[in-house]
Specification:
This protein is of the alpha/beta class and 220 residues long. It has ten helices and six strands, in the order ααααααβββαβαβαβα. 43% of the residues lie in helices and 12% in strands.
Length: 220
């Protein structure tokens, strides 16, 4: 599942990523205080507070932790052929680490290589005929020149960009606003399968996360 980090440690990242309200800042606090997340996973409420977590976050961890089995979560990822990359993994995209709020865990179906030369091609779901044609031309030309085309698997411009990159024999990555066990929209299942062969589906959301409207701005 993970590159550059032991599976024993990765499973605790996956576990914490299932707890609401535990994001970049709190992951950093836990990792720094406990020198890894295994110790944090087994910590008492007092120890979690000593790490710098607020009362609400500590209560959330204490309440949700007994309901989560990290080993079972890793097994589930394996069934869906999903890799879990933490920001400590060498395979975690280097440029993603540079944004203000990088996701502590990135889920991947397919392959991530050195996609440093990449461009996002996104647009309206209700594209005109002209808009679709332009999207296809731009994405296809980029892919033919070795540029990875990144988009969101949505209807309209996004799907046209993915299909053009695939047709050109290039790489394309779809960033989802839901768990990777869900394809949204559902009529893009075949397209998603094709993308995994020539690129990857990626998401910061754990398996089982539904495509809620408020997930997509963050996905973008």
């Amino acid at each position: 599942m993970s590159f550059g980090e032991s599976m024993d440690e990765t499973k605790y990242w996956v576990g914490f990523n299932l707890i609401p309200g535990i994001g970049r800042v709190k992951f950093s606090l836990l990792e720094n205080y406990f020198s890894g997340l295994e110790g944090a996973w087994n910590a008492s409420s007092t120890e979690l507070k000593m790490a710098g977590l607020d009362t609400k976050s500590v209560q959330s961890i204490i309440a949700r932790r007994p309901q989560i089995c990290p080993d079972a979560e890793i097994e589930k990822l394996g069934r869906y052929k999903v890799k879990a990359l933490t920001w400590r993994d060498s395979a975690y995209p280097a440029r993603l680490k540079e944004i203000y709020d990088p996701p502590p865990v990135l889920y991947v179906r397919g392959s991530l290589v050195t996609d440093e030369c990449s461009i996002a091609v996104v647009g309206t779901r209700r594209a005109s005929i002209y808009g679709r044609q332009v999207s296809e031309e731009i994405a296809g030309e980029l892919a033919r020149n070795g540029v990875t085309v990144v988009s969101g698997l949505a209807k309209g411009v996004d799907s046209e960009a993915h299909r053009a990159a695939l047709k050109a024999g290039g790489r394309t990555i779809a960033v989802l606003g839901c768990g990777l066990d869900i394809v949204y929209p559902s009529d893009h299942v075949k397209l998603a399968q094709e993308i995994m062969k020539q690129g990857a589906l990626v998401s910061e959301y754990p398996l089982g996360t539904r495509p809620r409207a408020d997930n997509f701005p963050r996905r973008n």
